Every structure is written in structure tokens, then in C-alpha cells.
Amino acid sequence: MRTVVLLMVAGLVELSYTQRLNALQWLNYLRSRRRQPSSVWADRLSDDCPLECDCPASFPVAMYCHSRNLQHVPYVPSRMKYVYLQRNQITGIQDGVFDNATSLVWIMLHKNQLSSDKVGSNVFRKLRNLDRLYLDNNELSHVPTNLPTSIKDLRLGHNKISKIQSSTFEGMSDLTNLHLQANNIEEVEGAFKALKCLNVLDLRKNKLKKIPFHLPKSLHQLYLEFNDIECVPGDFLTTFHKLQFVRLAHNKLTDGGIPPNTFNVSGLVELDLSHNRLTKIPTVSKSLENLYLHANQINEFSLGSFCDVVDMMNYSQLRVLRLEGNLITARDVPAKAVYCLRLAVSIHL
């Protein structure tokens, strides 16, 4: 009997406490009971966390709202630095939604349904510490305006962007990784010229007919596969001393579209010209290590493309050479190739 009375009294005390709370506080109170926080500090942190998200006490500056079927961006507490909103059904973002959390460093909004006409022109403007912004796999028709100049990693792949204005990335001198693959881009208007720290530029699977001009000299990796490029400027690589990886596979390149010695520049490590319309092996630098020429129409193995002089002291650094899917066989490889390509680990014919 005593046990029953004690339980009833405890229930009445708890009920009287919850009656003093408003609806939102009551729901947060129930959540805190379920999670059994280990400290009063953890309980306080949970008070400002949106009900749709998780804000773990072990990482108090992160808000996890991914894969929740959200249709809008929830309230973001001012203490947050990392917000994960990917894999939802968010179609738009109103101006001011992030103004309370100006310390944000990462915003993950990939794999939503964002459209450009529903994204405010000043959504990201006040986020002066923003480092990473992921907007890939959405429905954007143009790059959002007024992006913070602090961004270093910007991902806009798999959208519906057709044109890049010359002022699109103005002032973003800290940008190092720019991903624009799988859009409908036909023109870029020298938009990359001022990106002095850009290391990676991904323009795969677009509708480019020529290589963008005024690329930054800091470029390290350039991806241009699956476009409609027919030719390469003769001085394309002469000013890019840091460029090591160039991929031009699945374009419309012909022998006439590649001037002599275009790729005969030191520093280049990997060159992919596969799935084009070449009939000859272009001249490449001795420092090149990986050359992909498969699925072309090459009909001769020209050793001079790798070594201008063939002797014991002059040889290529080439490690991997892919030539399968062309019009040559092992019989077409000259005997002197053993000296010129002495470092080769793999040659595919």
C-alpha cells in the first residue's frame, strides 16, 4: 500500500511540473527524459535544438537533420558551425534563415530539390566563416548569388546550370575546390580567372565546345570529360606549372585539333585522351607517368611521341599506357620501346 501511495505522489509532482511548461518546452522535456542526458549542460543544449533534428551533447556545434523528409530549413541555433540537411525534400531557402548562425562553417544541402527561383539572393551573404557549401544534386538553374568569399569547397554538380557569368565567383580568392560536373554549361565567360587558389576544377558532363580560357595558374587537377571539345589551344599548358592531372576523355578531339607539343610540358603526371577521334599518339613529356589513349582510332605506335632520342640515357617516366580499342597490336610496337619505356609497368594493347 505504501508503494502505491508513493507512486501516486510522484506522478502528481511530475504532472504539476509539466503543467508549468508550454507545448514546445514540454516536448523537449519528454525528449530529454528519453535520452537521459548526463548533465544539466546537455539538457540546456537540447532546448534550442529543432525537434526535426539531432544536436548531440558530445558535439554541441553540429546539427543533424539529414534524411528526415524535411521540406524547409529548420531554425538554426546561433552556436552551430556544422549543419547537415542533405537527402531531404527542401525546395527553397528564404533570406535570413541562417542569419542567426553566422559562425557556420559547413552547410550540407546536397540531394534536395532546391530551385534557383526559391533560393533568396542573400541567403548565404552573412556567413563570413563558411568553408564548405554542398549544393550538388538539386534543381538549380544558376549559381546562387552573393556567396561568401571565405568558401574553399563549393559543390554544384548535378544541377541544371547552363551558364556561368564572369562575375559569378567574384572575390572568392580562397576557393580551392569547385565542382560543376553534370550540368548544362555551355559558356563560362572567364569566370575562373580570379580564383587564385583553385586546385580542382571539375567540369565533366557538360556541353562545352572549347576549353575555358583564363584558367587560374594554381590549377592542379582539371576534369573536362564528356563534353563536345574538338580542339586544344597550342599554349594550353605552358603557363600551368602546377597542373598535374588533365582529363579530356569522351570529347571530339582529332589530330588536327591538337597542335604539336601541346602536351609536351614538364610537370604533367596524368593525361586522359581516351574515347576521342585520334589516329596518332600525340607527343607527350618525358615526365608523364600515366597516358590513357584507349578507344581512339590510332593506327601506329610512334616511339617518337615518348622519346625524341632513344638511347640508354634518354627514356620516358611513363608507368601506365593504355592503347586498347585502337588499330594497333603488340606487333606494331618497335623493339627500341624497351629502352624508351623501360619504367613502364603496364602497357595495354
UniProtKB/TrEMBL annotation:
SMART domains: LRR_SD22, LRR_TYP, LRRNT. Residues 1-18 form the signal peptide. It comes from the Eukaryota. Keywords: Disulfide bond, Extracellular matrix, Glycoprotein, Leucine-rich repeat, Proteoglycan, Repeat, Secreted, Signal. Affects the rate of fibrils formation. May have a primary role in collagen fibrillogenesis. Binds to type I and type II collagen. Belongs to the small leucine-rich proteoglycan (SLRP) family. SLRP class II subfamily. PANTHER family: AGAP008170-PA, FIBROMODULIN. This is Fibromodulin. The lineage of its organism: Eukaryota, Metazoa, Chordata, Craniata, Vertebrata.
